[in-house]
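Late entry, evening session. Most of the bench is empty. Finally got around to the prediction I had been postponing all week. Sequence below, unchanged from the version circulated by S.P.
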Amino acid sequence: MSDWRALRPVMPILVGASIMLTLSMGIRQTFGLFLRPVTHDIALSVSDFTLAFSIQNLTWGLLQPIAGALVVRLGFRPILLAGAALYLAGLLTLAAAYDLLGFLAGGGLMIGVSLACTASAMAQAAASRVVPARVRSLVLGIITGAGTLGALVAAPLAQAVMADHGWRWGMLALFAFALLLLPATWFAGRVDRIPLPPSAGGQIADATVAGAIRSALARAPFVVMTAAYFVCGMQLLFIATHLPSYLAICGMDPMLSAQALGVIALFNVAGSLFFGWAGGHWPKLVLLGGIYVARSLVLGWYFLAPPTPVTTLAFAAMMGFLWLGVGPLVAGSVVEMFGLRWQAMIQGLAFMSHQLGSFVGAFGGGLLFDRFGSYDLAWRLGVGMGLAAGIVQIAFALARPPRLATT
């Protein structure tokens, strides 16, 4: 109970980080709703559209370690505020886009850079610094659970405005919603006032950036976790980007896509809380592997038969429960292995792999659809690779548990 009382002075930081994450993650998860309206309006192919948002994920992943290193040098607040401003600029650029270049600039580069500054790694690193170790995993689960709550508002908002006024006004509606990023990042940036405890650096307290990277890549449990994280990103972005298109091809009501994204967001809260709690009781890396296996089985079940509204919402519920539960487990594992000082950067290294997978899932799914006219090969590859990654992660974690750092 004393640990929870200690959180009262830092609640503005935790709330700010939660709102920042729910906006940055929740809004981006609605972009799949724009695929068919945009491709019909300005004559982009499916692979053109997905290229823009694949570049977003690639930019996010490549810049995440750099943003994490800058936090050590400059503090959280300037990085978070810059990310919020870029997110807003990216949405305005998308709303004004008339060709592929506009989508690449707004949805790809601007929002990609912004996410490196405002999304999961930053929110989790800020929260980790201000909470006691005994409740850290659960608090990270709560923060992560906020990651898709924004989609509960953003998805139906965008779909309703698009239906009445077109996709550009739908994007402007998301811009208005995203204005809340500015106060959220300001309050989350208060974490700079909290000094690191003397032992927070763990095993690499005095390392340079290069030294911290070498230390991380020399740890086999971290490398295996990072490799499996690639498949996680591939599966999630394939679903987020292509599920609306798949449902439209199958003749489903367009609102079902928004409803499915909303259900994913809702059940993600329960899943993130559960896995945040579970990470405080069982080995985090084993739980990660279990998520990858379960997610792959659900993906295979759904795509084996034509969708219906009932199966789609059931799929969304199950997938939502398994959606971002990886977040507190990966963040907690990084803190346990390396400590707090370089958490944002080292977690960013793992996340780079995740985002390379996201690029493959979004863009690769579009390429396979353009080539074969269906998503059959894409989902089969996703299932097979997910099962392999999950099994390897579990086996390695049981055989070689990571050495724990002092945090």
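Two things to note before I forget:
The CA atoms of residues 42 and 99 lie 7 Å apart.
The chain has a mean pLDDT of 88.
Will write this up properly tomorrow.
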